[in-house]
Structure formats: structure tokens, C-alpha cells
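Everyone, describe these C-alpha cells:
***
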Amino acid sequence: MLNFGLKLHFAKYFKLRTLFVFLYQITFMKSILYKYRKFFGVLLVFSILTIYLFYVALKPSKSLPIFNPADVNPELVDSTVQYISKYHTIADFSFVNQNGKTITQKDYEGKVYVADFFFTTCGSICPKMTTNLVEVQKAIINNPKVMLLSHTVFPETDSVPVLKAYAIKNGVVDSKWNLVTGDKKTIYTMARKSYLAVKLGKPEQLYDMVHTENFVLVDTKRRVRGFYDGTNKEDMKRLIEDINFLCTE
């Protein structure tokens, strides 16, 4: 019975001793931390900053290419400019929009904009392209740096009243989006020499062209920065992301 009592006594002693040592260690560590708190604070900040810098250095930064005629499918580029491999920019232009107003490059000066080619009676890809461009319009409606520009490839039928009716039907916001018409030769030249986005039509018909599903992204320096499938929802997400990127570039 006595041995059992001694064992119980020693067990309590060792538990108390262990607790005392543990509390002492905590107190000692707290005193060390307090004494060297500035050092540990600086070390913590330095560690966080180092990790952040490594993250930034290793994370690939976003960038968009600058397209020149030599970079694009030759079917979409006029033969007279296919050799150009640098310094390509959108040429000056002058067209008439859905409100009968003359639109020039001045109206797009300093803007990021999306250009495309369509016609109002198109029953194939145009309706989907227009629907998707309406969604892009919603995304950029409050961004004063961004505009849209749609050229008809059938100016002989897409007159100002026709374009106006099409604009109203599809919810085009006049301050953000111009639907333009003009001389067919001039539109053809812009399509194949500047925007690099339209195929040749019938060889026997001069300046005949077949528009594509391409949306063309142009930066504030009038450089082509991207091509997007205007019928593809995923490409529209990418286009909106790239528009926002160019606005901060």
C-alpha cells in the first residue's frame, strides 16, 4: 500500500515537473521573441517580400502580339502588302455611319477598338457575330477608351437607313458602335490592306470580297493586336480580357 502511495506521489511530481518545464520554455520563448521582436518582424517582412518577388518573377506576364501582314494567312491579305513584317498600322479612313455622320480615324484616335466586316442581309455567320458583338458592347459600355466599328461589305444595298434599322434592331449604342458604309473599293482596301481580315470573292468581279468571322482588335497606336472568331463564345471572353489588358498597357 505504501509503495502504491509513493508511486502515485512520484507520478504527480513528474507531471508537475513536466508542466513547470513546459511553462518555463514558453516563458523563455516569449522573452526571446519579445527581446528580438524587431529582428523577427524584419525577417518576416523580408520573407514575405522575397516570396512575392519570386512569384512575380516566375509568373509569366501577359502580352499581346503585334500583327503585321507577313504574320497573317495570305488569303486574308492583299498581295501588295503581304511582305510587310513590321510597323503595320491601320490606314486613314472615312466612312458614313448609321446616322449619316462621317466617321474617320479621328473618331477612334487614342481608342482601343474592335473592327469587323458584315452585311445586314447575311443569313449565315453575321447574326451570331452581331449577337456576340452586342455582348462585347455590354462589357465595354462604361469604358470610354473602347469602341466598335463594323463595315458593310455590301455598301450597294446597306444604305444609311438600312444600317440604322439594323442598329436599332440589334441594340447598337451609337456612342460606342459605328456601322459604316461607303465606297466598295475603299472598304475592300481597308479590309485586306489594313485589317487583314477578308478573303477574295469572285475573281471576275473586281473588289468582290467574302467577309470572315474575324473580329480584329486594334490598339491606341492603330496596330492590329488580335484576331477572334466572332461566332465563338470562348473567343469573346478572350477578346474582352484582351481589350481590358490593352486599356492598361
Remarks:
- The chain is about 45% helix and 15% strand.
- The two ends are 86 Å apart (CA to CA).
- Confidence is low (pLDDT under 50) at residues 55-60.
- The first strand starts at residue 94 and ends at 96.
